[in-house]
Amino acid sequence: MKAQRGGFVLGLIVGLLVGLGLSLAVALYVTKVPVPFVDKVPRPPQNEAAEAERLKRWDPNGPLSGRPAQRGESASTPAVPPPTAPAAAPPALANRPAAPGAATALPAAATPPQTPAAAAPSADPFRYFVQVGAYSRAEDAEQQRARLAMLGFTARVSEREQAGRTVYRVRLGPFERKDEADAVQERLKGNAVESALVRVER
């Protein structure tokens, strides 16, 4: 058993050494054999210089501008067109004299005739009240005001000294225009309520 085990280990070592030797020989052969399609066509040094020059002058924006970059022209410098002289006037028009009385400026736009502003209506110097009654007792004036409220009118009771006694007046208003006071007076007349138009200066 010991002899068989020793022979197996020895065979394994010999096999490893033989495999390493074969691998080394193959590696040396591969490094010395020329590579096809590369070493068979040597590149002349003139072509390498031209290729390097072309790569230096290659313009990545050439397809966008619509024209290829010229040799010796920088890609970043735009071409400046030559200045053009102003067009001269035709001889027929240049020698033609100006018409007499011709205006050089455009005529001003015709302005529409201005109409006088309408006169503003003069402010009414009076204010108007519609008085429904004057009473010597405040209770009577309040009853009249309540009666008007039931008819849909808003009245006020005011006090005033008249001939040495206090008078309680029931009035509607004030109204800024006379026609408003007249309209209220007509409504009161339709409800069988007597009234009087009172005019007070402002």
Describe the structure.
- The chain is an alpha+beta fold and 202 residues long.
- 39% of the residues lie in helices and 17% in strands.
- The chain contains six helices and four strands, in the order ααααβαββαβ.
- Strands 2-3-1-4 form a four-stranded antiparallel β-sheet.
- β2 (156-162) and β3 (165-175) form a beta hairpin.
- The longest helix is centred in the N-terminal third of the chain and has 31 residues, at 2-32.
- It is rod-shaped and about 160 Å long.
- Mean pLDDT is 74; it is low at 69-77 and 116-120.
Summary of the model, kept short:
This protein is α+β, with helices and mostly antiparallel strands.
Number of helices: 6
Strand order in the sheet with the most strands? 2-3-1-4
Rg (C-alpha, Å) = 61 Å
Percent of residues in beta strands:
15-25%
Structural class: alpha+beta
Write down how many β-strands occur, each being a DSSP E stretch of 2 or more residues: 4
Query: Percent helix among the residues?
Result: 25-40%
Summarize the main sheet: 4 strands, antiparallel
Mean pLDDT comes to 74
Q: Span between N and C termini? A: 146 Å
Give the low-pLDDT segments.
69-77, 116-120
H/E order of the elements?
Answer: HHHHEHEEHE
